[in-house]
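Subject: mismatched residue count in predicted assembly?

I count 885 residues in my input, but I want to confirm that the predicted structure covers every chain. Input:
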Amino acid sequence: MIRFENVSVTYPDAPAPVLSGVDLDVPEGELCLVVGRTGSGKSTLLRAVNGLVPHFTGGTLTGRVLVDGRDTRTHPPRDLADVVGLVGQDPQAGFVTDSVEEELAYAMESLGLPNAVMRKRVEETLDLLGLADLRHRPLPALSGGQQQRVAVGAALTAHPRALVLDEPTSALDPGAAEDVLAALHRLVHDLGMTVLIAEHRLERVAQYADRVVWLPGDAPPVAGDPGAVLASAPVAPPVVRLGRLAAWQPVPVSVRDARRRAAPLRDLLGTPTRTATRPGPELLRARGLRVRYGAVDAVRGVDLTAGAGERVAVMGRNGSGKSSLLWALQGTGKRSAGHVTVAGADPADLKPAPRRAAVGLVPQQPADLLYLHTVGDECAQADRESAATAGTCRALLDTLAPGIPDDRHPRDLSEGQRLALVLAVALTPRPRVVLLDEPTRGLDYPAKTRLAAALRDLADDGHAVLLATHDVEFAAEYATRVVVLAEGEVVADGPTADVVTSSPTFAPQVAKILAPQPWLTVADVETALAAR
Amino acid sequence: MSAPHPGAWWLWAVALAAVAGRTTNPVLLGLVIAVAGFVAVTCRQDTPWADSYGVFLKFGLAVIGIRVVFHVLLGGIGGPTTLFTLPEVPLPEWARGIRLGGPVTAEGLVFAGCQGLQLATLLCCVGAANALANAKRLLRSLPAALYEVSVAVVVAMTVAPQLVASAKSVRRARALRGGAVRGVRAVKLLLVPVLEDAFERSLVLAAAMDSRGYGRRAGLPATTRALTGVLVLGGLVGLCVGAYGLLDGGSPPLVGVPVLVVGAVLAVAGLWTGSRRVRRSRYRPDTWGRRELLIVASGLAALLATHLAPAHLGGADLTPATVPLEPPTLPVLPAIGLLCALAPVLLAERKKP
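Triage response: the counts match. Full output below for your records.
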């Protein structure tokens, strides 16, 4: 169905090819998962399938890409619209019309299909993806998961032979991601659709894959059985890493397979000895915090404290008020009622400069903070803004992410490096409280581990760190405490192990495998095994 | 029951606007505003843009105010009844003919008020059309030759709110870097990330549209393209001149309807030749039926009753004299015509209490 023959792609002005020597054959009806570090060429590979690379992006493609017998050399993307459907990471950015039904029909209109066919296919697709109730709704009013399902549906109505998805669940909370993946699973099993999918959050998709293609970046891709390939790749979901650690053969990819083998390991490990972490002196205190936009209550009466050395994860659905809460705590965002105290003062009453010295915040779009042309300029500007000695920001950046050259443009950094830069900027005035809004977007596993380590060092240094996330694996790895928000209210607040193991949505894979023993991360298990 | 064709609502509103363009009689103008408002409120669907009538009404009130203030400052029509006199600013020789300040007369005020009211009424007609029919849906009904233009407009209308959102988030993020920046520097600091964001969004959108088959087309010879261009341009010029002639009571009758018809014919021919180039179909196209005919006919009734009213049936009262001042009278036939324009109310779905 999809065939790559010795494909190499080089972008203009790039020193080395993004992809080289790719030979790949995805047969009909297969769900093929593409994995690799950030920048290993996953998106390029996916976009080469429907000809966006190189017709739209520029660059040189050598070799041949065939889709359903059509060569992308002679067929631009629009002429492949009836054989390949492409779904991007941010569904809203790709919407052309403004209601669900029209969006579903758009590709068919472009293909010039007769009206009767369009009516029939729209109805089928609405049913297939469970969108029938939403058919007349305006697209911006939908939730993230619903939008992503509409984007999948919009690609499906053209009846493509293959569906290509670039990180379809990255921006979604666990529940919404389940919705989208269940829909995909159904497409593969009921309709025999060929699916090529790239994803960072492997714990969500690896179990559905028939085959995994690993792009090492500097060598030709490795394709094969999911367990075997992931076991040797640096990016692997916790279940695979646990399997590797316990030397299970073949390496399990799903929680179910792992759990069936886990009994001996569970007995061996026993119950983890929990060292009760005593938080240091209280740094942040919020009482009855409310945020209201028009008729919408984003945050309704939240009480929250955080002490020095605490690492708190704020979790909850998209739109449950996590961002509003962080911004209100920082003092720059809106607050309708309640009190916030940081080191004896209310940050909202402070001027911006002392406010950032009290509470640092890394927004969801880190790039919003950056506007200069080089990393060096941004660091120097941060030092000036916070009246710190020259070189403070640069030194912080080097501890967070060593080796970023001064003359690099911030937009050319990887997601992880850019996050490190913004975190360094936020830390330059030495705030005791640090807030991060959804920092793990677009980070691969090694980058997340590095971020978790950096945040742990910060907390050990006497900071209180609060972050909003819906990445359950990251929360398990990083947090000492988890706060769950629903509709702007705190529904759970306690030590990570207690909160996440009690909820199937927020439980990390290791906890699911080793339940009822409350183990959370592969690293914990590894330490316990080494001590034995 | 689906909503009536948006084109029908726009034609109805244009007919009402043509009535308003023909008269400065405040009673009749008030009647137009009332009719447009009543229909807009009764027949609107449950949509985000359904409240636009109110916005346009406020805008109209502002227009009246501005018109009157300008009259007071700059003068214009004089009259015997001087209400008060502003100190006059002496202007140099080259600015002769312009007056700043001076006497303000009741006649002049009424005249300016009526003219402002006329503009406000036109705005209300546009507002009613906006409330009743989504402009985007109207664009979908455009001929295929104008497809690219309509896509560009739709994308622009979608991008505008996104730009505002993006600017807001950047401004909020900027506050995190301390020290409020003002002036030219602030514009630059704000603009760079917002424009980068907008640029990236448009690239993503373009890629998405390309992958979904946007722009698959049949080839067309250059001569046909040139012919299409000439026909469409000529048609548009004809339509503009004709519409101006029709709306402006003072132009010779030959410039009105005949030029409008010629322009329309040219434009239709151009669109038809151009449409053959686009191979697209349309999902659930809006259809014309009896409802649409009733809506357009009711608008036309008001238009004809106003433009063709004989002098003794109200034709003489359309532009009441302001010097000397006299109370406006109700032009009988145009008023009856306007009441006909209320007919679409009969089509409104019964709202469940």
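Strands of chain B lie at 82-89, 100-105. Marking this ticket as 'not a bug'.
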